[in-house]
Amino acid sequence: MSRPVPAPYRVTATVVALLGLSAAAPFLYRTGPVGYAALLVPLGLLLALAWTVRLGQWMLAAGAPPWPARLTLHLAQSPQAGQRGRVVRAADAIGRGANLDTTPAGYAVWAVLRRGSAPQLHQRVVWERWLRESTGEQRVLVRRRAGVAVLDVEGRGRIWPSSFTLRRRPWGVVLTPLGGTSASNDLSWWRLLTVIVMVVALLAGPALGRGDHLDAVWATVYVVVLAFAVGQWFGVMPPGRQSGERPAAGGSAKVPGPRAEPHRGGRFTGTSKTRKR
């Protein structure tokens, strides 16, 4: 198995690719009409700027003093049909009548941090390959600064944030412990490829039809890179089966959401660096 690439390197490469592809766009459109693919450039530049700011937050948080906490990873899932509005419940009933899969699905990974009697912290995180085995409660070192928290998992590695640290649960979703849910939580390769192919056909198809192959290749690569950057930003868990598929230990299936200031005291007396496999 190939060695996984850490999130900072993946994000940096994505930002460089988006900037490079965006810079190449004016030269491509000098010889041909501007198609729908030009709409990708503002989105790509905006996302590259957002990721650049987030990388700066990562650097600041990584240098903060650590403090110990307990971590449980969760999937942010859409609520059950009975917990939603009447329109959604009606659509769910119609879908069930048409034999469609209406099981709530969750793809974004959230970290829930606990420390003694202090209030909980919630944060969306960038996906790492070894997170599939990270079910149940674990000990971590938290380095919090600039509105985000970097998490060092003992014996595993470092988890990087893809959102600000929240003192409340995220709105509009239900947090279910990773590996402890009976709901659908796997993004299939077929569904992912279908969406990408449809977007590529819409944006690169016109260029291919007029024989502008270079423009079509540029649009295809831009769509793939942009999809990868968006997936990292929203903490999407890629296709694949979770390890274990069992309830989380320690009775952490419920995630209360008190609204209070988190405890920031004390430094961890152990080592501030974690071992990496």
TrEMBL record:
Transmembrane ranges, per UniProt, are 34-53, 189-210, 216-236
Print the keywords alphabetically: Membrane, Transmembrane, Transmembrane helix
Top-level taxon of the source organism = Bacteria
Q: Where is this region: Disordered?
A: 240-277
Q: What is this protein called?
A: Uncharacterized protein
Q: Which source organism?
A: Catellatospora citrea
